[in-house]
Structure formats: C-alpha cells, structure tokens
Automatic annotation (TrEMBL), chains A, B:
It comes from the Bacteria. Pfam families: HTH_IclR, IclR_C. Residues 76-259 form the IclR-ED domain. GO terms for biological process: negative regulation of DNA-templated transcription. This is IclR family transcriptional regulator. Keywords: DNA-binding, Transcription, Transcription regulation. It comes from Rhizobium johnstonii (strain DSM 114642 / LMG 32736 / 3841) (Rhizobium leguminosarum bv. viciae). InterPro entries: GAF-like_dom_sf, HTH_MetabolicPath_Reg, Tscrpt_reg_IclR_C, Tscrpt_reg_IclR_N, WH-like_DNA-bd_sf, WH_DNA-bd_sf. PROSITE patterns: HTH_ICLR, ICLR_ED.
Amino acid sequence: MNSNGESTAQARETGTLGKLMVLLDLVTHADAPLRFTDILALAGQPRGTLHRQLTHLVEEGLLELDGDGRYAPGLRLLDFAARSWARNEFRLIAEPHLRDLQQATGETVHLGVLRGQSIIYLDKVEGRQPVRMYSQIGNASPCYCTGVGKAALSLLPAESLVDLLAGLSFTSFTASTHISAETLLAEIREIADQGYAFDREEHEAGIRCVAAPVWSEDRTFMGGISITGPAYRLSMELLHQWSVPVQLAAGRIMEGMRIRLGPRR
Amino acid sequence: MNSNGESTAQARETGTLGKLMVLLDLVTHADAPLRFTDILALAGQPRGTLHRQLTHLVEEGLLELDGDGRYAPGLRLLDFAARSWARNEFRLIAEPHLRDLQQATGETVHLGVLRGQSIIYLDKVEGRQPVRMYSQIGNASPCYCTGVGKAALSLLPAESLVDLLAGLSFTSFTASTHISAETLLAEIREIADQGYAFDREEHEAGIRCVAAPVWSEDRTFMGGISITGPAYRLSMELLHQWSVPVQLAAGRIMEGMRIRLGPRR
DNA sequence: TATCATTGTTCCATTATTTGGAACTTAATT
DNA sequence: AATTAAGTTCCAAATAATGGAACAATGATA
C-alpha cells in the first residue's frame, strides 16, 4: 500500500478530526483511487458513517470523487502544501548551503526532518537535470534506513530514542537494512559520537549517502542533510572524506538559523 | 494576507471538519507563523474552543507549534500533497505532451485545473534552469486573469459560469486585469468559440500567455495548458501562431486520457 | 426483459463530541 | 511585588456524529 512500508497514520485521540485523518491517510496511501466499498472494507466502519465522512472530506476538497465513484486525494492538499513549503523557515535558511554542497560535490543533496517515525524531505538539490518536483520533496521515508533519518535519531535524548525504536516495525528493503532495534541503537550511538551517518545501501540497493544532523534550538526541527549518489561513484572512502563538508554545511545552516531567528530559539 | 488576493476557503457546512479547515486556511494563508492571540482575533471564537481545535490540528500534524508559541503549517501536509501529486492521473497523462510543447517553443508550459474559483497548477515545465519545485506547482491563482483560468471557464455550461462569475471579487493586478463580470463573460464566450485564450499581461505586468482548454470526459478535471513568457519575447502575433500547437497538445492529452482511462469516462 | 445481487445513499433516534463561559495557571510588564 | 496579558483546563449545555435499517440505483444473470 505504501512503497516505503511505513504509514504516517497514528491512532491518536483527536476525536472527529482523528477519524477523518485516518480516512485521508487511507486514500492518499493507496496506489490507486478507491471505490466506496474498498474504503468500507479498509476502514471497517458502518456504511452510513463512512459515507458522510467521505462526503465531508470531498466537500472540503481534501478528497475528490470522480465520475466512476472513485475517491482520490484532493487538489486542495497541493495548495496547502505549496504554502507550507514556500514559507518553511528551516528550508529557506538551509537552501543556499544545500546548493553550495551540491556544487562542491556534484552529487544530489537532501534536507529532511524527523516527524514521528518518518523523515519528511523538505528539499533536494540535483545537478543539471531539471528536478521532477515533488519527486522526493514531501516524501516520507523510514528513519531507520536513511542517512538523514539516522542522523536525526542521533539527536534524540536516550529515552525518546528508545521509545521510538520500540515502536518501529522494520522492513528489509535491502540485505543491509537494519532489522532490529539493537543493532540500530548501537549504530545511532556511534553516529551521535562521530557527528555523521552513512547509508550503506540500506534503503535502496546501489545507493549510498553521508549525512549530518541539523536541528533548531527549540528542537522543533530535528533532521539532517545528506549527499547521496550511486555506490559505483561514491566509495565508502569518498563518503568518509565528505563527512567533513556535510558537517560544515550543517553547522552553517544552524548558524544561519541563530542569526535569522534570534538567539532566543 | 494572500498574494493572490484570493482564498481557497469556502464556508461550507461540513460540521466539525469545516470549522477546522477554516483555521487551517487561516494559518496557511498567513505570511508568517501566528500566535494564539493572533488566531483568536482572526477566528473570532471563544478561547477554550480555539485552543482545543488548534491542539487537535497540531496533534494530527496539520499544524506545528514552535518553541515560541507560533503556529505554522504542518509538514504532514507535504506528505499528503506529494502523494496526491505523484499519482494524479491527469498530470501523468499530460506530462509528456507538456514536455513536447516546451521543446517546440522553448518557453515555460503550465498545466492547471479549476477548483472553485481558483486555478491550481498541477505541473510546470521550464527550459534549462533547474526548476525551483513548488515554485508554481500547487499554487492557487485567480481564474479571471490567467490564460489557463479563462480557458477553463470557457468549458463551463452557461449557468454555472454565470454563478461562478457572480461570486468573484476582482483584484486589479495590472492595468489590463478584468475588473467586471461583464467584460470577462464576453471574452470567455469568445474563447469558447475560438478554442484558445490569451493572458495579455492581466495577472503580472510583462507576462503573456496562450492557453487551450483540457478536460476529462467526466468533467472532474476542467483546466488548461499554456505557454507563458515575457512580453518582449512573446509578441501577440507569435502567441496567435502558437494557439495552434497549444490546441494540438491539448487534443493529444485528451486522447491520451481516453485511451488510458477507457472509453467510459 | 425480468430478476437478483451488489453498490451506493438517505433517515433519524441514540450516543458521543464539541462548545463556550469562567476559573485557573503561567509568563511578561511596570 | 503588583498588575496585566497570554495561555490552559474544566464541565454542564448545545451540537454534531453515529450506526442500524430502509431505500435507491446500478449492474449482472437467466
């Protein structure tokens, strides 16, 4: 249902809103538009209830109902997201430094933030080829098998980290994906010590990265930046060398935030 | 508050969800993160009520609350949008044709869809410069002063069109922006006859475009594609010539939809 | 074409959630 | 320290959501 094997859904108790968000998650995570009956089976709710809920979501533009009675994510979500992205302070401050890093290495640079158990990518800077927008931006990826994710986890206080790891369900994307909290925890402690993380083809075979953690002082944003590329071009030795520029860029981003947002944060 | 002078908000009666969406609109349309008291003034609700509503929105990740007590759009919106965009059938089918059109003309090509009184841009294909993602995609623009918007309006049945125009409030972005329903209606009738529309620097001074309408058979998508560029490079004569390739591309997109989605739609 | 099965929609008494005023806590200001 | 403003919690009353069942529309089958 979700290419990442992860869901953003969390059965929180937010009353009416919470129930509706579960539905929205259901439809947006599906691979294709869903029929009423499909959703009925997935949601396990009385028909009348479900029908009214879907109607409300459609009326608000969060879902769309086509001529064949299939529900798809609504375009109003795009408008919300465009605004959310355009004014995100963290991203705005980071952007020039991501570009510099891309220029210096010639490889793709990412910026991601931890939200729940997922990393949400806020920006991506590639080389020449025109970026397919949204290709990566906005995507939620697992935190336990991405460089940015592990870098972000290394920022958590011990207790929160253990709690988060306890709630993870591991999917083995490649042969080197972590599949237990123990080995992951060990690596995260190491990352916390050295200040940078690798992705050794753990999410996608043939793809490696080096990442460094970045955070805002109020801990609203805990994430990382990474340099990503094909394993044949990025030897582990090269990635070790690049751990320096990534960390430097991360430092400059955090300095930028202090200047721009004031010392209070 | 909104750079377009437009709002996507519509005071529908969707109970609890509707009220929460008004709040979400408020925060996402603001130019900067808002404090509790700011929202209190704007929303005009009792403090207790507002507080709980905001808490729910934050718990669901639709809003975020930073260390200074300021509310900003939540990043979960990005995840939703990324999914909404990645699988949008209309966009997927249109994409190769947009590229062709961009190649043929060398100018920027847009795909937009009518939603309420706004055009939501689904895609944008530019020339060499790496696209700043979300730069245009997802943005909601007024329908009455954009090429895509007027092309989309030309698809509406007479009655719906009149209703929609009656509800518009016109903002004079440039000297040539339509500021009355009468002149706009006249032009839209003309557009419906000839099958293509111009934007004669009506939204932004110095920017012109030619657009052609595109729609799905079930009328779920009523929008258009356009070629846009600076007035000094795009003479009205050239735009008249380009009305042919835009219409051809529009035709191919619609043909593609019929093939891909089956004859039933 | 008539019949049956499936899918989707509406209704309304019951149940649960939201509401909003006020009391309360905390932070900022004089 | 006193005062004001900002943010949070509480609970009886008002409102909205629920879910079972009846109803309608669609589509498949004989």
